[in-house]
Write a structure and sequence with these properties.
Layout: H1 3-17, E1 19-21, H2 22-29, H3 33-45, E2 49-52, E3 55-58, H4 63-73, H5 76-86, E4 95-98, H6 102-114, E5 119-122, H7 125-131, E6 138-140, E7 145-147, E8 152-154, H8 156-162, E9 167-173, E10 176-178, E11 182-185, H9 188-199, E12 201-207, E13 219-222, E14 229-231, H10 238-246, E15 251-252
Helix pairs in contact: 2-3, 5-6, 6-7, 8-9
Length: 255
């Protein structure tokens, strides 16, 4: 497993469990304890974690802001693969919903390249800015409170605004995908907005790179069968593909 993938897993795990042992991470990620210690040292230097005897704990200062910066540069090729695959589920004239995420940021770039006319709703200022590169796109932004660290709009008024719409397709970011626990995510404020988009969409696709599989975050979105499919990248393991298909969960990825 590449360093960026390991770092993503460690951060996601700490978000849920708050502490992690070197031995556990070494076994889970199939690398040596020395490799995990170097990863934790790297994360400590970035201000993400605090190393303790035998492992690390999540540092509580500026978690959201720092994590967004880390996520931007992690698994970028995989996110680009997901974005290209997502375009196969869009047609000209569709009304698309994109929640805030670095994966959906890549999807927005592909939409600009591959489509002439779309209507797109997003609560992400970054995504909205990218979409303005196509003058034929109609872009909807909600009112609400700006979360500075994520550059996204949240709150009860945001949810109320979303409930006015009817989306053809929602590309939904998730932090965890598990046969047992279903689709899960982090972030209280973002979660309510995500669920409003989910409730007002005809088709729903979870978008997540291969590192999100067999992980669980703290907020449950729903069963895996509640979406029309999961769009991922080519690094997904054959065993996961087989196991999920056996359970009637459809995974899509670019070869």
């Amino acid at each position: 497993m590449l360093k960026n993938d390991r770092v993503t897993y460690i951060l996601d795990y700490l978000q849920t469990h708050h502490t992690a042992k070197v031995g556990f991470l070494s076994n889970k990620l199939a690398v040596t304890p020395e490799t995990i210690r170097r990863d934790l040292e790297y994360l400590e230097e970035r201000g993400e974690v605090k190393r303790v005897h035998g492992g690390a704990i999540l540092k509580q200062t500026n978690i959201s802001e720092t994590n967004f910066l880390v996520r931007e540069s992690i698994n970028i090729k995989e996110k680009q693969q997901i974005a290209m695959e997502a375009c196969h589920f869009v047609k000209e004239g569709d009304f698309i919903a994109l929640d805030v995420s670095t994966t959906n940021t890549e999807i927005s770039k592909q939409l600009v390249k591959n489509f002439n006319k779309l209507s797109i709703f997003t609560n992400s200022l970054v995504i909205a800015t990218i979409l303005t590169e196509n003058p034929n796109f109609t872009i909807f932004l909600p009112n609400g409170k700006l979360r500075n660290s994520e550059l996204c709009i949240l709150g009860a008024s945001t949810v109320s605004y979303i409930n006015r719409f009817h989306f053809d397709t929602f590309f939904m970011s998730v932090s965890g995908i598990s046969l047992k626990e279903g689709l899960t995510d982090y972030g209280d404020g973002e979660f309510e907005v995500k669920m409003a988009m989910f409730a007002n969409s005809i088709k729903k696709f979870a978008v997540a790179d291969h590192t999100k599989f067999d992980n669980t975050a703290m907020l449950r979105i729903g069963d895996l069968q509640s979406v029309d499919g999961i769009i991922t990248d080519s690094m997904i393991s054959p065993s996961i593909l087989e196991e999920y298909e056996k359970n009637d969960v459809h995974l899509f990825y670019s070869q």
